[in-house]
Amino acid sequence: MLSLMKAYHGDTTGCMAVCDPEEGMHSLFASLLPQHHFAPAPTAPFDATAEQVEHDLSALRSVLERHHHEIAALLMEPLLQAAGGLNMTSPAYVAGARALCDEFNVLLIFDEVATGFGRTGKLFAADHAGVTPDIMVLSKGLTGGYLGHAATLATDRVHNAFIGDTPHHAFMHGPTFMGNPLACRVALESLRVFEEENYLGKIAKLSQQLKRELLDDQALNAHPAVADVRVLGATAVIEAHSAEALKGVGGFARERGVWLRPIGRWLYTMPAYITSEAEMVKVTDVMKAWFNRS
Ligand SMILES: *Cc1c(COP(=O)(O)O)cnc(C)c1O
């Protein structure tokens, strides 16, 4: 596999092995994990042009040039590396990655567990770039949090590789609760609500509000402890210069009736899509109050 620095893909052995090997939380397991290739995390922001992502893409290209013969797939969280620090990149990077995978005959896998179902403002992060991965992984938003469920989608080309007359072709991999009918039913109902109640509209409103409350706040952006403020869809992060600057923020927020859980030096919110305008203000006010406390 080829994965990216700052990546987070889960906590089981195979998944830990494709998480950021340096900053990840899995150092305890490092000696057990299979070794994969890693490319630098993208650095260009969401609104970067094709030209401005050139640097990030050439880093990806150079790993592929050297190792494509031993790489099955490039795996990434498109547009938003979530647990690795809410690192946002441009659709041009995602489109460029697709082109590189085609050029080097390497499959492209999108882990949209965090980004899927509207989190970045479109149904899938892939939609911003107009690209289709060969394999796509979905979970979190699939059931709106009501029941644990995940799905792995594949193109016909990938799917058909597992079809044939011999057991060697079959994907001999079936956990006890695979295809759980109740979880599937909950997912279908969640998708129905998402479409019929125009969740993408709700997400657009949340996004505008997060931009207004956080991005447009001059004092917050100018605060000496703040390195960057980013908003993408229903995701907002205040990046501090150090984790130290966020020490105690969890308790501070809880005392004010808000649950915030920073990761490292990133204070973020990924609100539920049913969050009202007043509730969202309460959250962003607490995030700002932390930096404005004397
Ligand atoms: C949460 C998350 C996972 C982990 O999913 P599990 O169901 O806990 O294995 C994987 N990838 C991304 C991008 C995530 O945000």
TrEMBL record:
<dbReference type="InterPro" id="IPR015421">
    <property type="entry name" value="PyrdxlP-dep_Trfase_major"/>
</dbReference>
<dbReference type="Pfam" id="PF00202">
    <property type="entry name" value="Aminotran_3"/>
</dbReference>
<dbReference type="InterPro" id="IPR005814">
    <property type="entry name" value="Aminotrans_3"/>
</dbReference>
<dbReference type="InterPro" id="IPR049704">
    <property type="entry name" value="Aminotrans_3_PPA_site"/>
</dbReference>
<protein>
    <recommendedName>
        <fullName>Adenosylmethionine-8-amino-7-oxononanoate aminotransferase</fullName>
    </recommendedName>
</protein>
<dbReference type="InterPro" id="IPR015424">
    <property type="entry name" value="PyrdxlP-dep_Trfase"/>
</dbReference>
<keyword id="KW-0663">Pyridoxal phosphate</keyword>
<keyword id="KW-0808">Transferase</keyword>
<keyword id="KW-0032">Aminotransferase</keyword>
<dbReference type="InterPro" id="IPR015422">
    <property type="entry name" value="PyrdxlP-dep_Trfase_small"/>
</dbReference>
